[in-house]
Each structure stands twice: as structure tokens, then as C-alpha cells.
Amino acid sequence: xxxxxxxxxxxxxxxxxxxxxxxxxxxxxxxxxxxxxxxxxxxxxxxxxxxxxxxxxxxxxxxxxxxxxxxxxxxxxxxxxxxxxxxxxxxxxxxxxxxxxxxxxxxxxxxxxxxxxxxxxxxxxxxxxxxxxxxxxxxxxxxxxxxxxxxxxxxxxxxxxxxxxxxxxxxxxxxxxxxxxxxxxxxxxxxxxxxxxxxxxxxxxxxxxxxxxxxxxxxxxxxxxxxxxxxxxxxxxxxxxxxxxxxxxxxxxxxxxxxxxxxxxxxxxxxxxxxxxxxxxxxxxxxxxxxxxxxxxxxxxxxxxxxxxxxxxxxxxxxxxxxxxxxxxxxxxxxxxxxxxxxxxxxxxxxxxxxxxxxxxxxxxxx
Length: 367
Hints:
Elements (H helix, E strand, L loop, with lengths): L1 E4 L5 E4 L5 E2 L10 H5 L7 E5 H15 L3 E5 L15 H5 L4 E3 L4 H13 L3 E5 L10 H8 L2 H4 L9 E6 L14 H5 L5 E3 L4 H13 L4 E6 L6 E5 L11 E4 L4 E5 L3 H14 L4 E5 L2 E3 L4 H10 L2 E8 L4 H12 L9 E5 L10 H4 L3 H13 L1
Parallel strand pairs: 5-6, 5-7, 7-8, 8-10, 9-10, 13-14, 13-16, 16-17
Antiparallel strand pairs: 1-2, 2-3, 4-11, 9-15, 12-14
Helix pairs in contact: 2-8, 4-5, 9-13
């Protein structure tokens, strides 16, 4: 796979398939500073997803004085989810600072800072709060490099806690990634593990293009190994996280955990699922997906977002175009319903779970 930035500022990834396409507060540890202390280069440590992000942000701030963190309540409080906890104390109020409750102003300020050579990292406190900044993101941030014929770069990262499973109300459990994936000039990524969270936030900050960094908020407290010595995988690469032979299942963010749960259950019933973590939503790395479908002949795509005109739709259409003669069944999608996010007591019905994934797997195998 090769990554290239064109003179128009639109970044593309070309895979070997020939396809081209444009990623309530946390429970505090007993000793937070002990868990977030700077690791040694050869260390593997068990960290919660949110703490891994904190460590990645700390590394980026330490590596480059032009990196700034900005957002609502990210300073002394450390953010609603405590992802920036301790960073203002360590790096000062000129590099980690609170902003007014004005998302359009946050992103607009970040654009100006980027034009002056800084690398701002904005936090949107909750996914549903991003819409006041939609104009700045889609009409200014995404187009600035193209507008200046490649002479101006926009190294802006916008962190977006997204998705459900936290029992919150509307505007706090959205999955708005498709709005931005549709916009040329933006990169989108979404890690699913603490190790990816640590490495991918640093890669996003080092990018000269704007990156929307979608963080599955229901996974902030989930722990996993973080290998501080390992080289980061390419930011815009998808990855097989469980090998299988009968059905390929694809998802991103929190949905990867659901797919792995489904694969475990399917294995007890004699069915082998291959699980792929997208990691990058724009561009999408299709090579592992196409290779897997050529092996299994079946594909199920799962997402917490509604299914209509979605990233799941795009994957289904592209795989059908690129691997039509390998498919033994239609590509099936498992998504949230095409309704506004419901009250918290209904979220487990609204969001896909392992049972809904397995039902789709059964339908695929029935062809």
C-alpha cells in the first residue's frame, strides 16, 4: 500500500487491488500518575484505552513544541473522560488550555494556529457536539490546502469521543463519521485497542493533513497491552485481528470487540469467522478485506452508525465491485437502525450486538 498527498490536498491510498479511495468521567486509578508515567522504550504495559491515549498525547507534546491541546474542560479537569489528565500541569497553560463552549470557535482557532505553524489537537467533548463546527471542518479545514494549491498544510487533529454503550442521552452517543468521510480533504481513523490508541494518536498528530480521530468512548476503560517499543503500523491500514475461513466480518472502533465476541460464539458452533479491524475510515485500506473475501466468499459489515448512506454501505458497494466473482452471497450489513439515537434504556436494542452479527452470518451461509 502506498500513501500520497496530492497538490489539491486530497490524500489517497492505493491498495494492491487497484482501488483508490480518499480513522461522565472515568473511574480513577488508585494512583493516576503511576499509570501515566512515561514508559521506557522497551516496555509493554497494560493500560486502559483512555490512559493509552493520554500517554500518546504526552509523547506527542514532548516530541514537538508546536503541538497544542485545546478543548472544553481539558485543562485542570483533564476532560470529561480524563484523557488529558495531568497534561496541563506538565506542559503548562500555553500548550494545554481550556476553550469556551463554542465548537465552531475551537476548530476555527485551530485552523488559524495551523496556518501559523502549530499542530493543534482539538477535543470535541461529545460526538453530538461536533455539528456546530461542521461548517468550519467541511468548508474550511478540508479545503484549505486545495484552495492554496498545496502551499498551506493543515496539521489539525480533532478528537471525537463517539458511539454508544455509556447510557447517555441524545447528542452524547452519536456515530457521525460518515458525514466527514464523505468530505474530500479529511482523514478519518478510529482505533479499537489501547495499543492502537497510543500509536495512532501520535501518527495523526504528525500528519500534515487534517485528521478526525474517532475514539470509541465505551472502550475508554477497557485495558489491553501497549507495546511502547513496537513501530506503529501505518495509520491508514486495516488489519486482520482473527483469522477464519468461512465468513469475513468487518468493523471499526467498539464494534471490533463485538465481532470478536461473535467469532468466539461462532467457533463453538463450528463456524470460522475472519475478523478485520478497519482502523482507517478515510481512506479505507481494502487490500486485507478483498483478500479475505476471496478466501471466505462471504462478507458481513457491522457498525454502530445507521446503515443508510454509511461507511458500511461504501464497503459493501466497493467489495461487490472489486470481488464480485469471489462472493458466494450478497454482502450483508449489521448497523444501528435508521432513527435518532433512542433513550438510554433502549440503546442495547438499537445498537448491534453479537446476536445480530451471528444472525447475519447465518443468512450469509444459507446462500
